[in-house]
Design goal:
Residues 34-96 form a coiled coil. Residues 155-544 form the Alginate export domain. Residues 1-22 form the signal peptide. This is Alginate export domain-containing protein. This protein folds into 2 domains: 2-108; 111-555, Porin. Helix content is 19%, strand content 40%. The protein has helices spanning 2-26, 34-68, 73-94, 101-108, 111-114, 329-332, 534-539; strands at 116-130, 161-178, 181-192, 212-221, 229-236, 258-266, 270-280, 295-304, 311-322, 344-357, 360-376, 379-393, 402-410, 420-421, 448-457, 463-473, 504-518, 521-532, 545-555. It has an 18-stranded antiparallel beta barrel. The longest helix is centred in the first third of the chain and has 35 residues, at 34-68.
């Protein structure tokens, strides 16, 4: 019987030591085994309770044996003390709280680390084009990557073709520090395969210092003074509406960001924001040395979320203030010369209405219009633009087809030599967005009419197919054809002006296919054809354009 008691005591002692050891080692365990550890510790708790019951039984048996034997009272009392002491130890172990997974995780990861989200994206796009296409020089990783008016299509013909592969890599950290502070940092590497001229370093690179850069880096001060007010300061993407006048130029391999301060007031009913951005910091570099040549952008928006049923109404103001009197858009577009030009200042007032018909959400619509005034170099600027889009989705049919129609118009200048500038300034857009003026990116919202029809189907939850048709006319034949980058397609305006016998610019057909291969892997492909119209035949050349691309985007 004494052996049985000692075995029980030794077993209880080993169990207690094991519990203590397991508990201490658990704090260094990996997060993957925490749940298993918790189950084991709870099982040990049950085992210790069972041991306590066994000790009680031994005590009772020992008491009975003592009453019928000749053992002395001292031996009985000693045994009772041993059992009582062991019982208390076992009770302490049995009643201990089991270690929980969240308790251990709190020691492994700091509170701040829980508030930081890390992510990344790799986007690779292969393209092939021939005819009047634009080499993707805007990514600053090809020879001549500065872009500008020299990036036009003058001199290209049916035999002009090229293929290239663009690669964009982004890494970011989003820190939700506390209720009033958020920080966002995004690093980007943008390159064209083979543009460095070698596989070793930057031996023959083009603009290599701009390949890797800080794409976004800003902080948010939120709920200032306990109000729905957020102040965002730093390098940031800014998108308004359909990107028509203010966008992030996301299709480009580099994209567009603004170095800006932004004030945002947001409630359930309204959204208000004001922006001040420095677009170009040149310092005191004008030809006459009398002033600086910086470019600034100022903007404000008032959005009503519930004023119109099932629709969002946005009122907008944007100002482009380019103090460079030598190289502003007025000079680059051929309306002024560097010797005679003055600074450029455009004030844009617009609105956008986007929504669905109440009680009939199968019909969607968007209406956007802008009016502009100001000074375009030496000329007085007055211009306007309008865009109207509508569609009907057959939600009860297979593939849920949507049929849409769109009309876009932007004013042009009927006489580039007078003192009035009437061509709409497209400001800071993403013209590729939604194929606003064709996916091949041969037009901007300047001096144009665009009649568009499209159909979109969704054969599966992962697959979307869309076909678009565009018919393009020039608003003013003398003004010329403006590419998506805002410059004349011919590079410079002819001295004698353009032939004005016809305003038919051309037509375009786009096929776009997107497929969500996996949760974090998307595939996008497309083909576009642009056919020359009579105006192109008379002024540039009878050349069609073919463009095809395949893009993969991997995000984590």
């Amino acid at each position: 019987m004494k052996n049985k008691l000692w075995k029980t005591c030794i077993g209880g002692f080993v169990a207690a030591v094991f519990c203590a050891t397991a508990g201490s080692q658990s704090y260094g365990a990996s997060a993957k085994s925490l749940e298993e550890m918790e189950k084991e510790l709870n099982a040990l708790r049950s085992s210790v309770s069972a041991l306590t019951e066994q000790i009680e039984t031994v005590k009772q048996e020992k008491t009975v044996a003592a009453s019928s034997s000749s053992n002395t009272n001292e031996e009985v009392e000693a045994l009772r003390n041993e059992v009582s002491s062991l019982k208390e130890e076992m009770k302490t172990a049995a009643n201990a709280e089991p270690i929980k997974a969240e308790d251990i995780a709190g020691n492994v990861y700091s509170e701040f680390a829980k508030k930081v989200k890390l992510g990344g994206q790799i986007r690779t796009r292969a393209e092939y084009a021939n005819g009047f296409y634009q080499v993707p020089t805007s990514n600053a990783t090809l020879p001549g990557g500065a872009g500008g008016a020299t990036a036009g299509v003058a001199g290209r013909g049916k035999s002009s073709d090229d293929d290239y592969v663009l690669n964009q890599t982004r890494l970011w950290a989003d820190a939700d520090v506390n209720e009033h502070l958020r920080m966002f940092i995004q690093i980007q590497d943008a390159r064209t395969f083979g543009a460095e001229g070698t596989t070793v370093g930057f031996a023959n690179g083009y603009d290599e210092n701009s390949i890797t850069d800080l794409h976004q880096g800003y902080f948010d001060l939120r709920k200032l003074f306990d109000l729905p007010l957020t102040v965002r300061v730093g390098r940031q993407e800014i998108i308004w509406g359909d990107h028509r006048v203010l966008g992030n130029f996301v299709w480009s391999n580099v994209g567009r960001t603004f170095d800006a301060g932004r004030f945002m007031w947001d409630t359930d009913a309204i959204h208000i924001e004001a922006i001040a951005a420095r677009v170009d910091e040149d310092g005191f570099t004008t030809a006459d040395g009398s002033d600086n040549s910086d470019e600034n952008m100022y903007a404000a928006q008032l959005a009503f979320k519930k004023l119109i049923p099932s629709a969002l109404l946005e009122l907008m103001y944007i100002s482009r203030n380019d103090e460079d009197n030598v190289g502003n858009l007025s000079v680059l577009q051929g309306f002024d010369t560097a010797a005679d030009s003055e600074s450029l200042e455009v004030h844009d007032f617009g609105f956008r209405l986007d929504g669905k018909v109440p009680n009939l959400d199968a019909i969607d619509y968007t209406l956007e219009a802008h009016g502009q005034f100001g000074d375009y170099g030496d000329q007085t600027h007055k211009a306007y633009a309008v865009a109207a889009r509508g569609g009907y989705t057959f939600k009860d049919m297979a593939w849920k087809p949507r049929f849409g129609f769109e009309y876009d118009h932007a004013s042009g200048d009927d006489d580039p030599t007078d003192n009035d500038h009437d061509t709409f300034d497209n400001l800071y857009p993403t013209n590729h967005n939604q194929g606003n003026y064709g996916f091949v990116d041969l037009l901007s919202w300047q001096n144009m009419h665009d009649f568009r029809a499209n159909i979109k189907v969704v054969p599966t939850s992962k697959l979307t197919v869309q076909v678009d048709y565009h018919y393009f006319l020039l608003a003013e034949e003398e003004d010329g054809w403006y590419l998506a980058n805002g410059f004349l397609a011919s590079g410079t305006r002819p001295v004698g002006g353009y032939d004005d016998d016809s305003n038919e610019l051309g037509q375009e057909v786009d096929l776009t296919v997107s497929y969500q291969l996996y949760k974090n892997v998307g595939i996008l492909g497309g083909y576009s054809w642009f056919g020359a119209g009579n105006w192109m035949d008379d002024n540039i050349g009878d050349t069609d354009t073919n463009w095809v691309y395949l893009q993969t985007t991997v995000t984590f």
